Amino acid sequence: MVSRKDSNKARLKRHKRVRAHISGTAACPRLAVYRSNANISAQIIDDEAGRTLVSASTYGKGFEGNGGNKEAAREVGKAIAEKAVAMGITEVVFDRGGYLYHGRVSELADGAREGGLKF
After folding, report:
1. Cα–Cα dist 91/83, whole Å
2. Which is deepest, 29, 37, 43, 64, by most CB within 10 Å?
3. How confident is the model at residue 7, as a pLDDT?
4. What mean pLDDT do residues 24-29 have?
5. Where are the alpha helices (DSSP H) in 1-119?
6. Per-position b or e across 70-105, b if 16+ CB within 10 A of its CB
């Protein structure tokens, strides 16, 4: 019998490897991405203080439409950038969360750049 590799376990391993090199500070916080089949979410995190500064996602009532496609990811990127710029955050470190920089993850990043974030 052929056994399949656990793809989420491999993603978490990649995520640990990435997180060993990047960290968010008060001057340059971390933009973390989480992607599921049906939704996508992003947070801007100050790792030194251990708190989330800004968040946006396709969960909840504020978002209309399908949360699991590229258009939704771009809108989440724009929304988080808008909230961050309002708080005075313009520069972040992008944390792709172990996902490939492709599809919805890259669309979220492009939306955040359109909204005014630099990374």
Report:
1. 13
2. 29
3. 92
4. 94
5. 7-19, 70-87, 104-115
6. bebbbbbbbbbbbbbeeeebeebbbbbbbbeeeebb
